[in-house]
Amino acid sequence: MRSVDLFDAYLNGQLNAEEKAHFEWRLKNEDVFSKAFEQHKTLLDTLTTYSKRNDLKSQLKQFHAESFGKDAKIISIKQSSFMERFGKTAFIAASTGLVAVVTTIALLSTGGYLLKKQSNEITDLKREVVELKYSQNGIVTAFINQPTKQRYAPANLEGSGFALNNNGFVITSWHTINGADSIFIENKFTERTLAKVMISDPKLDIAVLKIETDTVYKGWNVPFSYSGKPSDLGEKVFTLGFPRKEVVYGEGSLSALSGHLNDTTMYQVSIPVNPGNSGGPVMDEQGNIIGMIRGKLSSAEGTSYAVKISDILNSINSSKTEGLVLNTSKKSLKNLKRVDQIKKVNPYVFNIMVYKEN
Question: How distant, in Å, are the alpha carbons of 43, 51, 97, 104, 106 from that of 46?
Fold first, then answer.
């Protein structure tokens, strides 16, 4: 949905309770989104005022015609009327105003100034699943390659996540699981399994899940540690995630030590990411988790943002959730080649599947 359509739906009361709550959360927490919404309301007010003035003018003309006849002229009391003295200037000003309004409308409808300004915000990277496409793909795969494999209904949304420790805790983006009726995790090493939300931090955009069946994570040996110290500008980093049905690797570097609108809880990362990457780990060359993919800048490809692990640790520690202890000293990935690091990390990066009632 385009931003202007979303604004209109909110103003007209067409959003459901969940959509309205998320919209109002964005108004409070995203300055660019809030300013764009205020500009949209101002434009609508201007157009409404202009329309009312035209309607009043038409009504007055109709009243005059009915009272004095169609051919009767309106004569000013003063011999030197306002229009005689300032008519040309007023006409030019009115014409300029009308052109400005029409131009603004045209720009809005074709992706002009306001839309470009609105797009200069973070795009959430949850992946909306096209049900027909994945149903067909799933059926074909099941019959041809794995005839006995259990088939599942396609999820409404998908994203990424990764294990926090050996006790079955997994972290992902809050915007991916928000409003979920049920959540499952899966990768090539772990069969689809149910998880429940243990911690939600909408401001930081993180959610911690817990796998409900303990046999699933029995024998886990999560290889990475969590680096709480600040990373350096230009540091090489990489990520794993699920913008597709299989895990995808991406690499780049830290291009800024703060995020969108100088948000100090995020890094800016030069890794191309796509819908489905939200919640994926961002790791340094030694295999330490330094952040989690949050989203990307709408107006610039290759510019993405990651929530800093230091802020994630603070949020998790403040929850005092039993069994949620993170390793900050393990170095089992240090000095390994990248391909070997990926092999060790892969089993602990998950496709997050979210189901919602229609």
Answer: 5, 9, 10, 11, 15
pLDDT in tens, 317-349: 999 999 898 877 777 898 999 999 999 999 999
**How far does Cα 79 stand from its chain's mean position?**
63
Q: Which residue has the tokens 């300029």?
A: 96
Backbone phi, psi, residue 129, to 5°: -95, 130
- pLDDT (0 to 100) of residue 71: 61
Residue 142 makes CB contacts below 8 A (sequence gap 6+) with 149, 151
280 neighbors 239 (Cβ within 8 angstroms): yes
* Residues 6 or more apart in contact with residue 322 via CB below 8 angstroms: none
| Domain residue limits, the chain | 3-120, 125-358
Tell me yes or no: is domain 125-358 CATH 2.40.10.120.
yes
305 contacts 259 by C-beta, under 8 angstroms = yes
Q: What is the residue-averaged pLDDT of the chain?
A: 80
Distance, in Å, from the CA atom of 264 to the CA atom of 266, rounded to the nearest integer, reads 5
Least confident interval from 38-42, 80-84, 174-178, 214-218: 80-84
CB 231 within 8 A of CB 269: no
CB-based contacts of 241, cutoff 8 Å, min separation 6: 160, 247, 248, 250, 273, 276, 277, 278, 279, 280, 293, 349
- The position carrying tokens 């169609």 is 70
CA gyration radius, the chain: 28
